[in-house]
């Protein structure tokens, strides 16, 4: 086995580190890996000697570890999950692996999928063309090796091994017995249809193997955590699924986008084929831009899981606004506002307080939250006493959202002092046309560090789940594809009310 030299790109920062050959997270082998215990050594030789495309160091490392064999000769990993940043050579490695399965292992049926059918066909056409033009592999292809009938495209060797492709749908590998599957861009699987179809086509194959190669995903990439979580559990605690192999080149959590050492962990070809200075510059631009540009950079170039690709409130900025210093709302009573909001499904509600501090910053905190079906009944029962206790200058809600369900109870009601609503000194505010202004202003105040919060887990979870929903040149927190975000809405409403309170009236004097 001959490794390619650790060459550097022609444009590079001489102080930049080489990309990490070893992934940051990986499943340890059950025994020493040798040519007898891993087909990866054979794959490396196949790439160099037969295909004429020697692997880079990280691809060699991956081949050896992903190709681990059990004592009976079956692949140790029935599922292999490879996470690596873009443009590091994962496609070349995957294409070579498919050819190895076809021409060396000669398995009966190999499936290839990608982002969609077009991309999967492009990979199939590339592998087919390379095989036909290769002086060694072409000898194992007969005159009709490549079938071009639309919907039935396949490449078949003289040994009977067949490679076909399919879209990410419930019809992938349906009514077949599948032996190998190269699943490119697993992050694009938004449901389990294709996975269930193809993986179940392997149930009767004892030595089947699925290799999923992808960069990091977002909250809709449901299959990545389905494989990654049990693999992490096994790595850390020895429980979970020992036959899921995780090999993850990624930047550590919390790493800055322009941290070259962190980028080296996500990009194993950094300074080899990827210019470090250009990647760092891209990271700096993304950091300055925030929003979708930063989320995209973290996902594709740092291989970090990003819950939302278009977060309404910048996650890092929100984290930076957190504090452990307590704030007593009673000291700022003349500058306190409350806001209530309800989740789209009506099974969660949050009451948030905001107070403008002496330095101009705005402190926010959760006063109370309710959860469960029918929780609005408890909201109606608890709210008057909570408001009396806090004694805010203003209380508001968003009647054009789910909180409309409580509008009748939240409007002013006459009665004895203990039953009248609102409590004395509290002004009611219906937040209608200002919804976009509330959301956009809250996001901006977080970005500028003018929001202070006590790191409440519930509020943080709701803020992190809020994604932008465009309304022309404005936007609001999108509820449809998120979980509960009523805490984020209540926070934004409370901040708006607190920051627009008129000056407090002077205290009464007795002559």
TrEMBL record:
Region (Disordered): 1-27
InterPro entries, per the entry: P-loop_NTPase, Terminase_largesu-like
Polar residues bias spans: 1-13
PANTHER family assigned to the protein according to its UniProt record, in alphabetical order: PROTEIN YMFN, PTHR41287
Stated name of the protein: Terminase
Organism encoding this protein: Haloechinothrix salitolerans
């Amino acid at each position: 086995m001959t490794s390619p030299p650790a060459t550097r790109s022609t444009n590079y920062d001489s102080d930049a580190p080489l990309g990490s050959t070893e992934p940051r997270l990986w499943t340890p082998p059950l025994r020493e890996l040798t040519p007898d215990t891993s087909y990866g050594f054979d794959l490396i030789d196949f790439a160099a000697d037969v295909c004429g495309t020697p692997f880079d160091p990280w691809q060699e490392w991956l081949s050896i570890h992903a190709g681990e064999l059990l004592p009976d000769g079956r692949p140790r990993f029935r599922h292999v999950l490879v996470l690596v940043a873009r443009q590091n050579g994962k496609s070349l490695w995957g294409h070579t692996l498919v050819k190895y399965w076809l021409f060396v292992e000669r398995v009966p049926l190999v499936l290839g999928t990608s982002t969609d059918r077009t991309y999967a066909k492009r990979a199939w056409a590339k592998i087919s063309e390379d095989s036909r033009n290769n002086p060694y592999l072409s000898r194992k292809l007969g005159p009709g090796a490549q079938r071009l009938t639309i919907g039935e495209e396949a490449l078949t060797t003289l040994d009977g091994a067949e490679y076909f492709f399919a879209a990410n749908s419930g019809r992938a590998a349906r009514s077949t017995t599948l032996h190998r599957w190269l699943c490119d861009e697993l992050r694009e699987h938004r449901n389990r249809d294709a996975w269930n179809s193809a993986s179940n086509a392997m149930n009767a194959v004892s030595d089947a193997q699925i290799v999923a190669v992808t960069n990091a995903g977002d909250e809709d990439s449901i299959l990545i955590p389905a494989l990654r979580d049990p693999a992490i559990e096994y790595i850390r605690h020895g429980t979970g699924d020992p036959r899921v192999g995780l090999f993850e080149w990624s930047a550590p959590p919390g790493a800055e986008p322009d941290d070259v050492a962190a980028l080296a962990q996500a990009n194993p070809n950094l300074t080899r084929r990827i210019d470090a200075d250009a990647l760092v510059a891209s990271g700096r631009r993304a950091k300055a831009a925030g929003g979708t540009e930063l989320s995209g950079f973290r996902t594709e170039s740092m291989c970090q899981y990003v819950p939302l690709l278009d977060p309404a409130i910048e996650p890092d900025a929100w984290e930076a606004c957190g504090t452990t210093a307590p704030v007593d709302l009673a000291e700022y009573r003349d500058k306190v506002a409350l806001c209530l909001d309800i989740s789209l499904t009506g099974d969660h509600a949050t009451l948030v307080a905001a107070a403008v501090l002496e330095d101009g910053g705005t402190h926010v905190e959760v006063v109370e939250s309710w959860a469960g079906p029918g929780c609005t009944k408890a909201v109606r029962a608890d709210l008057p006493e909570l408001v009396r206790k806090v004694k805010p200058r203003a209380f508001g809600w968003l009647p054009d959202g789910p909180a409309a369900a409580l509008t009748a109870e939240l409007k002013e009601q006459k009665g004895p002092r203990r039953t009248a609503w609102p409590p004395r000194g509290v002004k009611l505010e219906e937040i209608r046309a200002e919804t976009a202004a509330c959301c956009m202003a809250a996001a901006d105040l977080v970005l500028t560090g003018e929001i202070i919060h006590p790191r409440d887990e519930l509020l943080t979870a709701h803020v992190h789940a809020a994604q932008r929903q465009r309304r022309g040149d404005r936007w609001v927190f999108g509820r449809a594809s998120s979980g509960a975000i009523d805490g984020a809405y209540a926070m934004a409403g409370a901040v708006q009310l607190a920051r627009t309170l008129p000056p407090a009236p002077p205290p009464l004097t007795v002559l």
